[in-house]
Amino acid sequence: MTTAAETRLPIDWVTISFIGAIHLGALLAFVPGMTNWSAVGVMLFLHWVTAGLGITLGFHRLVTHRSFQTPKWLEYFLVLCGTLACQGGPIDWVGLHRIHHMHSDQAGDPHDSNRGFWWSHLGWMFHHIPADADVEKYTKDINTDLVYLFMHSWMLAIQVAFGLLLLAIGGWPWVIWGIFVRLVLVYHCTWLVNSATHQFGYRSHDSGDRSTNCWWVAVLSYGEGWHNNHHAYPHSARHGLRWWEIDATWMTVWLLQKLGLATKVRLVNESS
């Protein structure tokens, strides 16, 4: 249901058109000859690279919350992976997520779950929201970095160049599955963290908002579904706190730590 507050916000036709085009492009997978096992395999691998390494590990736990540190070259690589998820440039993504934590499920939250599942999942992106104007204030640590600025400004060009690479290697099936189908799946897996994990599941902590722990979102989003844990301890690199709360991204951080590529790893007793 659309609220009066939503109808007063200007419509973002550029974002609506872009997201619509990506979903329409994914339907080309049903065209004869546009599907093969190698294309599906590329999609699954790139889902992990862009959603797992890029969004979850890079944009979220590393850059937004600084729950651990890496060498700068690795940080830039992870941010590039996140940029390939085409969820807006890294500066906007990080800024809006920091604003979400400042005002979770309150006025000022970009995807306030009190407005309903649709709003928090997707509807908020269809409008120019007040939080857009505050991104610069919340990203002073990255918004003058030339590498971040390049990936932020040239996100679409990077995606097109990547698509041409896939076309050269595997033809149109790799483009359809590696770009369009992948992006649709990455989008909705990521968006479920904003919507489903503020609606369904259980709560382990009083985090001052509606965040929940939802196991099936954790499966789809590499551990991000343990969202109530995360909102209780936002600077912890580990979201799955109980032994059975499987957190694939924490396993990656742990491995990087063992390899000497992740340092100053923050956990619950250091981040409360």
UniProtKB/TrEMBL annotation:
Single Gene Ontology BP annotation: fatty acid biosynthetic process
Domain Fatty acid desaturase: 36-250
Classification via CDD domains: Delta9-FADS-like (cd03505)
Gene: desC
Protein family (similarity comment): Belongs to the fatty acid desaturase type 2 family.
Entry's transmembrane regions: 12-31, 37-59, 146-168, 174-193
Short name of any one Pfam family annotated for the protein: FA_desaturase
Annotated localization: Membrane
Broad class of where this protein is predominantly found: membrane
EC number: 1.14.19.1
UniProt topology in membrane: Multi-pass membrane protein
Keywords for this protein: Fatty acid biosynthesis, Fatty acid metabolism, Iron, Lipid biosynthesis, Lipid metabolism, Membrane, Oxidoreductase, Transmembrane, Transmembrane helix
Family annotation (InterPro entries): Acyl-CoA_DS, FA_desaturase_dom
Protein name, per record: Stearoyl-CoA 9-desaturase
GO cellular component, one term: membrane
Top EC category: oxidoreductase
Organism encoding this protein: Gloeomargarita lithophora Alchichica-D10
Cofactor requirements of the protein: Fe(2+)
Gene Ontology MF: a single term: stearoyl-CoA 9-desaturase activity
